[in-house]
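Help! Submission page says 'invalid entity' but I think these are all valid:
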Amino acid sequence: MSSASEAYDEAVTEALPARQRMLSRVSQSFTPIILLIIVLIFFAFEGTKFLSLRNLNEIAIDSSQLVVLTVGTTFVIITAGIDLSIGSVLILSSVVAAKVMIALSGTPEQIAAFEFPNQHIGIPVGLAAGVVTGLICGVINGLLTTRLQMPSFIVTLGMLGIALGLGQLLSGGTSVPNVPPAVQVDVGLKELVAVDIAGQHLRITPPIVIAYGIALIAAIVLNRTRFGRYTYAIGSNAAASRRAGIDVDLHLVKVFGLSGLLAGVAGAMDLMRFGTASVGSHQADNLAAISASVIGGTSLFGGIGTIGGAVVGAFIPTVLRNGLVIASVPPFWQNVAIGAVLILAVYLDQRRRKAEERM
Amino acid sequence: MVSTVATRAPVLEARNINKHFGPVHALKDVNLSVRPGEVLALIGDNGAGKSTLINVLTGVLPFDSGEIIFDGQPVRFSSPQDAREHGIETVYQDLAVAPHLDAVANIFLGREHRTGGLPGALGFLDNDRMRKETDEQLARLRVRVPDIERRLVTLSGGQRQGVAVARAVMWASKVVIMDEPTAALGVAQTAMVLDLVTQVRDTGIPVIFISHNMPNVFQVADRIVVLRLGEVVAELDPKTASIEDAVGAMTGSMRFARGEANQGE
């Protein structure tokens, strides 16, 4: 009775692994290949001006915030959700961080005189306040999505407006003035490790440690822990996850909380890197992070994605911008190129899925 | 064998269960019991109340009156999770697996083994142990999958359902309920799942098997209970009854004495 079915199943599945494995190996690694092609093109035209250790070091630093945002976005997309609010949450978080930092660093008179006697308290508490602001926004996203059973697209689109508006209200619509310069000079630009190789000054700064440390931890969590497994399971089949006894709503609140938290971290990094809270930039960071994650192989339908792929995806915009500037090409071409890469990535993703499920 | 099964105490028993959905009387004084070592087939036309009955038995839905006796004690499962914790597992017709996870992850979903010490407290998974136990479980049930670490989306429907059944059996210490487990499968794959049903029964764990497919039902069932419009209208012995009897009872074209219908009690 069962031998017939076994023979059938074996005939179906044994014939395909080789082809299917090759396909998935190719498609899972196409993001690094795209990045490599971009790098080689710039190298061909600009040589060592582009492909120098020093320039790669700058690219790593310039990518740091997008890496942090993309990590959070990847978790959300793997659950088959979306978080459109992260750019605005970043802005609100950095404004809150700046305001708290200023308020705690001295009296208004001292601040007006550009003196920050208590900045040793103001700076860490301010940065922490920014991170907590992000976490709160993320948890609210998660609670609204799960409690009101609303699509995360709508909830986070609402949060996009709310967080941006609050950031603008708090800052008066401009960059926050009088941020203690020490947050940039002594924190964000602090050279934790600095070496000179062949006349090139290479440095490891806090944004590098924060961004790639977070990415490493996130990759371990996603691959090795129950939290990661539930993230995939919910994105793959939320109903089956519920039937398996997983508290799906609680997990989604945690995942959106994580995304908000990381947006808060990126907001704090903004202050460290640029010494001011700017409400003008970062409004399109949500789309940049979603693009990076999807280019890195995360499926918008949920259940599929890796941190490694997403980090490589997050490098692509920075590498493009950097290379285009060096090549004296208008950097606006970056947007054109990213858009084309995004469409190509999703197309390949769909083909891979169909090839697998044809079995 | 039937006589020895019949003398065993029922594991799960429904007594005079009533359930209304607004004005609809979905279950009318339903009596049902399942004993260790038997396959009880539950059949009925669409809307006969099969799914409602299963949902009542497994804590998905509350019931209005009557009693559910589990292991000799009256119970009211508050949720499917509650029923599962009591050893009742359900296999659903729509392949309730996470297709992007592999067989190991699916079998242990919601019940993962964690490593010891601090890493375990942080949620680190003991994948080696889960892999080993998955291998053993699939071998025991003779479910063949090409690779237990391949995502289920790349397996055939029969292999996927095999994993779903293996998962249910792994955790069911008392009763396995299968709601149309072959509805989405081809002929050969159906044969494999039916084979699994009898294997589970032979381990002593009773199976409640819900199906529309009469040949399948007659192949595996030790006892057939027919629901029609929310009532148990017949209880048939597949060795003596015919498929025509079963269909007649389902559609109401054939009448059975109430006494016969409740004979199982």
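Support: the input was valid. A stray whitespace character was the problem, and the output above is from the cleaned input. The two ends of chain B are 18 Å apart (CA to CA).
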